[in-house]
């Protein structure tokens, strides 16, 4: 018998922090977990190589109501093969786990992230349903201390724990073997200061603010040679490319779409500074930011927004610099400060690497789950 059945709508090949979080969870409990996830349009050619039992089937019906009734099928199918159900979305999968528990007594654990919790409280009836799902969960797992405090202000679960996102074993191995050049030579046209953002191209990630800050620094000659690489894809690609051209930054900016994991690691190794000044736009929020920790693992200090959750991924003046959200002036000043102080970049980067490789591993974070069941 296995311990866990994980039911989720967010799993690779989907990109993003939640999908990666759940994949690493499944990889850690590979011999104790069955994963059932909705299929994607992309090829699932990597599924056969997964170390854990993985099944893809539609969890939401295309027609009729309620659409989530199909999610009961795997719960029933694997009822006698697992002990605890794990779900990653309050609405609708948390509701399915709640009703199933009332009929079968099978306990469930909810994995929460910031945007999911925000969307689940959009109106009165959703708030009422969300409270019930969280109250009856065996454990509620938050991905940050900030989110945990927010949950406690909304409802009192039976048990609430924080399990941070983890770095993959492959990335940790690469990061441990990588040694950054700590020379403090000035950056030249042949070797410019390399800034990096890795994120989906959506408004809340703050790419446009970085471009505006760079335009300010270049126009006022406040910084030497620099280059900015944007790794990611999304609906803002055309708008960001046009904004880059408008600011006359074409020679300073490179867009990289659809980078694989190997290419991504090379970008982390090549960069001098990671930057992602996120915003909270309504319910669209950055609850933590795993990419900050990934960058830190390769000795990169980060410039990030001083927002709840983000300030747990990046520690101000310890592993990076935090600036007021959406402030181009403060963002430019932070870039200028780190560009002009290589010793500080190295200090922040080394502290960030030590923290990332000691705190954000599966052995430290996901091992907590075994203590909860």
Reconstruct the topology from this structure.
Blueprint: E1 4-8, H1 17-28, E2 33-37, E3 53-56, H2 72-77, E4 84-87, H3 90-104, E5 108-112, H4 114-119, H5 124-136, E6 139-142, H6 145-152, E7 160-162, H7 169-177, E8 193-198, H8 207-219, E9 226-231, H9 237-246, E10 253-256, H10 261-270, E11 273-276, H11 290-297, E12 302-305, H12 310-313, E13 320-323, H13 328-339, H14 342-359, H15 367-370
Parallel strand pairs: 1-2, 1-4, 2-3, 4-5, 5-6, 6-7, 8-9, 8-11, 9-10, 11-12, 12-13
Helix pairs in contact: 3-5, 8-13, 11-14
Q: Tell me the name of the CATH homologous superfamily of the largest domain.
A: Glycogen Phosphorylase B
Number of domains: 2
The CATH topology name of the largest domain reads Rossmann fold
Q: Largest sheet, if any? A: 7 strands, parallel
Number of strand segments: 13
Described by the principal axes of the CA atoms, the overall outline is elongated
Fraction of residues in helices?
25-40%
pLDDT averaged residue by residue = 93
CATH top level assignment of the largest domain: Alpha Beta
- Nearest-angstrom radius of gyration? 22 Å
Strand order of the largest sheet: 3-2-1-4-5-6-7
User: Uncertain spans, ≥5 residues at pLDDT below 50?
Assistant: none
């Amino acid at each position: 018998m296995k311990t866990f059945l994980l039911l989720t709508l967010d799993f690779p090949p989907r990109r993003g922090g939640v999908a990666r979080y759940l994949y690493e969870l499944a990889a850690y409990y590979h011999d104790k977990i069955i994963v059932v996830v909705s299929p994607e349009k992309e090829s699932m050619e990597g599924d056969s190589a997964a170390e854990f039992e993985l099944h893809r089937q539609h969890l939401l019906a295309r027609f009729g109501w309620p659409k989530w009734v199909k999610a009961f099928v795997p719960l029933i199918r694997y009822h006698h093969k697992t002990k605890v159900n794990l779900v990653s979305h309050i609405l609708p999968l948390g509701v399915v786990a709640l009703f199933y528990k009332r009929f079968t007594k099978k306990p469930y654990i909810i994995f929460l992230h910031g945007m999911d919790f925000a969307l689940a409280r959009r109106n009165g009836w959703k708030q009422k349903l969300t409270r019930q799902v969280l109250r009856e969960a065996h454990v509620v797992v938050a991905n940050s201390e900030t989110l945990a405090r927010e949950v406690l202000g909304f409802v009192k679960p039976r048990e609430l724990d924080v399990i941070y996102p983890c770095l993959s074993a492959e990335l940790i191995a690469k990061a441990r073997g990588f040694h950054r050049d700590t020379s403090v030579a000035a950056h030249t046209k042949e070797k410019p200061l390399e800034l990096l953002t890795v994120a989906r191209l959506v408004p809340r990630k703050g790419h446009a603010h970085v471009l505006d800050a760079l335009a300010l620094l270049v126009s006022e000659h406040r910084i030497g040679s620099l280059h900015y690489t944007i790794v990611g894809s999304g609906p803002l690609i055309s708008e960001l490319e046009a904004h880059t051209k408008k600011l006359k930054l074409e020679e300073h900016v490179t867009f990289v779409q659809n980078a694989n994991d190997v290419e991504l690691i090379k970008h982390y190794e090549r960069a001098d500074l990671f930057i992602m000044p996120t915003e909270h736009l309504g319910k669209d929020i950055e609850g933590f930011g795993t990419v900050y920790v990934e960058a830190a693992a390769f000795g990169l200090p980060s410039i990030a927004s001083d927002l709840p959750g983000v300030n747990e991924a990046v520690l101000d003046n310890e592993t990076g610099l935090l600036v007021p959200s959406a402030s181009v002036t403060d963002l430019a000043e932070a870039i200028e400060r780190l560009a002009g102080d290589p010793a500080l970049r190295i200090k922040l980067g080394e502290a960030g690497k030590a923290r990332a490789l000691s705190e954000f591993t599966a052995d430290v974070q996901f091992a907590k789950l075994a203590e909860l069941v």
